[in-house]
From TrEMBL:
SMART domains: HTH_ARAC. Keywords: DNA-binding, Transcription, Transcription regulation. It holds the Pfam family HTH_18. GO terms for molecular function: DNA-binding transcription factor activity; transcription cis-regulatory region binding. PROSITE patterns: HTH_ARAC_FAMILY_2. This is Helix-turn-helix domain-containing protein. Gene3D superfamilies: Homeodomain-like (1.10.10.60). Transmembrane segments: none annotated.
Length: 330
């Protein structure tokens, strides 16, 4: 799957903080993501979810249970204007329903729902379609951060009745108790935690109608800009994907986007990317698909991806994946 969604640098910053005392160099955690330490200092930086997931994969390789820790660090203040809008909501239910309106601002990779089973409310995170090897990490990160949001909004810990997860029980299951002090179930149909229905109507201690109206409006505008930039990036990716055998170059792509090459370069830089980075990403994804099909010889795959020489494709694939195309296919 091609990761065309945009997100903030919050999760990446938390990853670096989590490993600060572990003597792990920041460059090792950012390796392969195209994110530089300088990017972390820009308040308006936007990255793709693919970049974020690459950093997370580097973190999980060093500490498999890190998703739980990162989720506990993801307080409501990490969400900018959306966080203020949630804090100033009238009730917990109002806040959660508002958060679900803006998944792009929340930065979630899941579909969030409130499910009433007749006895209790389940806050559910489902339909994960990103990197399969990070499914457990992202479920832990998502559900833990949602629980932290609820606690922050209420000004007290939200008592849970049960929690469930899609993945199998990990060997560090005991660490779940720090966040989910309730019965745990694994290999479920979704990721979710349950609480008594009455909590949805609980007034929030920082509720303020005027502030809430102002912050909600700013969230609406920010979401329009955010999703607009996502659509713009998606169009660029589709154009490149359709021309992998003869990439148009920065100038050619700019003409197809009806803008100057300078404007295109600037917009891509603002998104933490570049023409070559996007082209490499799309070539890599397509190469993995073609190699997995085990039909085309490698020299034809190289041609389909716009490489004039098979050797150039081999070198590029080795740089992208760490293994040669023939080894990947085997």
């Amino acid at each position: 799957m091609l990761h065309s969604h945009l997100t903030t640098l919050n999760a990446v910053s938390l990853v670096l903080q989590a490993f600060k005392d572990d003597d792990v160099d920041a460059a090792a955690l950012l390796d392969g993501s195209g994110i530089s330490p300088a990017d972390l200092g820009r308040a308006d930086s936007r990255i793709t979810t693919r970049q974020e997931l690459l950093v997370c994969a580097n973190a999980v390789a060093r500490r498999r249970e890190v998703g739980l820790e990162l989720g506990r660090r993801m307080h409501v203040s990490c969400y900018g204007m959306l966080g203020y809008a949630l804090l100033s909501s009238a009730t917990l239910g109002d806040a959660l329903r508002l958060a679900m309106q803006y998944p792009a601002l929340l930065g979630t990779l899941f579909q969030l729902r409130l499910i009433d089973d007749g006895e209790r409310i389940w806050f559910s995170a489902s339909n994960y379609r990103e990197a399969p090897h990070l499914a457990a990490f992202n479920a832990e990160f998502c559900l833990t951060s949602l629980k932290v949001i609820c606690d922050d909004l209420l000004g007290q810990s939200l008592p849970l009745l049960a929690s469930r997860f899609v993945h199998t029980a990990p060997d560090y299951q005991a660490l779940y108790a720090e966040t989910f002090n309730c019965p745990l179930h694994f290999e479920a149909s979704d990721n979710a935690f349950a609480f008594e229905r009455r909590w949805l109507d609980m007034p929030l201690p920082l509720a303020d109608q005027i502030t809430h109206r102002a912050m909600s409006e700013r969230c609406r505008r920010q979401n329009l800009e955010f999703t607009g930039r996502q659509a713009w990036l998606g169009r660029i990716r589709q154009l490149l994907l359709d021309q992998l055998d003869a990439a148009p170059g920065l100038e050619g792509l700019a003409k197809q986007m009806n803008c100057s090459s300078r404007t295109l370069r600037r917009h891509l830089q603002e998104l933490g990317s570049s023409y070559q980075q996007l082209l490499d990403e799309l070539r890599f994804e397509r190469a993995k698909q073609l190699l997995a099909e085990d039909q085309l010889p490698i020299y034809q795959i190289a041609e389909a991806l716009g490489f004039s020489e098979t050797a150039s494709f081999r070198h590029a694939f080795l740089r992208w994946s760490g293994v040669a195309p023939s080894h990947f296919r085997a």
